[in-house]
Amino acid sequence: MIGSVPAGAPRVGITGIGAKAPDRIVTNHEIAERVETNDAWVIERTGIRERRVAAEGEALSDYAIPAAQVALEQAGVTAEEIDLIIVATLTPDMVFPCTAALVGNALGAKDAAAYDLSAGCTGFVYGIAQAYGMMASGLSRRSLVIGGDLLSKILNWDDRGTCVLFGDGVGAVVLDHVETGGFRGFELGADGGGGMDLFMPGGGSRQPATHESVDRGDHLIHMNGREVFKFATRILVSSAERTLAQCGVTIDDIDVYIPHQANMRIIEYAVQKLKIPEEKVVINVDRYGNTSGGSIPLALADAHAEGRLRDGALVLMTGMGTGLTWGSSIIEWNGTGVGR
Ligand code: UT7
After folding, report:
1. Of 36, 229, 260, 325, which is best to mutate to test ligand 1, by the most ligand atoms within 8 angstroms of its C-beta?
2. Is any ligand 1 atom within 6 A of the Cβ of residue 167?
3. Is the Cβ atom of 263 under 6 angstroms away from ligand 1?
4. 164 C-alpha vs ligand 1 centroid, how far in Å?
5. What is the rounded distance in angstroms from the CA atom of residue 149 to the CA atom of residue 292?
6. How many angstroms separate the Cα of 14 from the Cα of each of 71, 175, 206, 210?
7. Which ligand 1 atom is the nearest neighbour of the CA of 262?
8. Ligand 1, atom nearest to 265 Cα
9. Of 30, 37, 45, 288, which is best to mutate to test ligand 1, by the most ligand atoms within 8 angstroms of its C-beta?
10. CB count in 10 Å sphere of residue 185
11. What is the pLDDT of residues 255-285, one digit of tens each?
12. Is 232 touching ligand 1 by the criterion CB < 6 Å?
């Protein structure tokens, strides 16, 4: 699906951003003590130098709640003023109840609608698109969208093809009606034909957890890295191009580009194909690895902290991930609220 915000439509923007990642840093050297890999290989093939890893016993909401609190504070609103909470994640605290309801309860977002959204690394872009739609239609007044994962909890730490890639982290944004700027458009899609290229086979209704399924590691991430790589390079470019065309802007109009932080080589390919200057690209994959649902909001929070999101800046974000799914959004940064 694709759409741009028509002239005269209600303007919705991001008015607060928060992020939270575990303190514990795990370097490539530390992983190399466990599996046959080395720092040079991981840096050359992925650009990743280190990632954050949550402690035993910690769950997604332990990071989502503080990230959301910062976002609310920046937006200058209380949790009670939020009527919609979406948590985009593959690693909720538990299968049910949804983590969004747990977060809403902890924040004091009384009676807010709350649900989790499963679109992998694209989840945050799906989440802001849904929240935008509900706000533009008048159904929601103000929403909180959280994207994040603790993928360390479902990683096979003996599989060098995946354990070097992923990390933990969460980002949160408040969406509110704004007078200037705001979202310009979205493009979202999925191709279930590639679903088995990145999946967790166990724990669902197809293969409920059993002793045998756990022994096989069915509750862990399985990935066909080469296929996902091919998909990622193709879709980051095509989704961005479709979204730019739909919104009536060119790549030269974009001030800040936030691609999914999966692999430096994938980002470099997209940057080269899209012909966007490197100084406009936000990169933190070297420090966080791929945090899935947290990837884009963490990068957005970094860009904000670095003062790169000036008033009127056009920001392009593109995510891709399990499903296989993808999604892009263009937002004109309005600055009101953020950092107040
Ligand atoms: O949000 C989306 C999430 N997923 C992704 O973004 C994954 C996308 N895919 C990738 O990033 C890359 O495919 C990888 C980084 C996973 C792998 O890089 P590659 O350049 O595609 O390597 P490859 O799979 O073609 O493997 C090349 C060699 C293999 O050895 P042989 O068969 O040639 O002897 C692998 O076994 O590299 C080996 N290898 C490693 N060697 C050292 C794979 N992982 C590692 C490792 N350390 N960690």
Report:
1. 229
2. no
3. yes
4. 10
5. 6
6. 10, 5, 38, 43
7. 6
8. 11
9. 45
10. 23
11. 999 999 999 999 999 999 999 999 999 999 9
12. yes
Residue whose C-alpha is closest to residue 321's, from 246, 262, 249: 262
Angstrom distance (rounded) from CA 150 to CA 140: 28
Nearest atom (ligand 1) to Cα of 228:
8
| pLDDT tens profile 27-43 | 999 999 999 999 999 99
* Predicted local confidence at residue 340, as pLDDT: 38
Q: Are 18 and 171 in contact (CB under 8 A)?
A: yes
**Helices first, then strands: H and E counts in the chain:** 11, 14
**Structural domains in the chain?**
1-340 (3.40.47.10)
Q: Please determine, for residue 338, whether its predicted confidence score (pLDDT) is greater than 90.
A: no
Q: First-to-last CA distance in the chain?
A: 35
Q: What pLDDT digit, counting tens, does each position of 208-233 carry?
A: 999 999 999 999 999 999 999 999 99
How much is the average pLDDT of 86-100? 98
| Mean per-residue pLDDT of the chain | 96
Q: Whose CA is nearest to atom 43 of ligand 1?
A: 161
Q: Would residue 260 show up in a list of annotated catalytic residues for this protein?
A: yes
Active site residue 247: no
Check pLDDT > 90 for residue 7: no
Cα of 161 vs centre of ligand 1, distance in Å, is 5
Span 109-131, average pLDDT: 98
Report how far ligand 1's centroid is from the alpha carbon of 226 (Å).
7
Q: Where do the H-state alpha helices sit in the chain?
A: 28-32, 39-46, 60-75, 99-107, 123-136, 160-163, 211-216, 225-247, 264-274, 285-288, 295-305
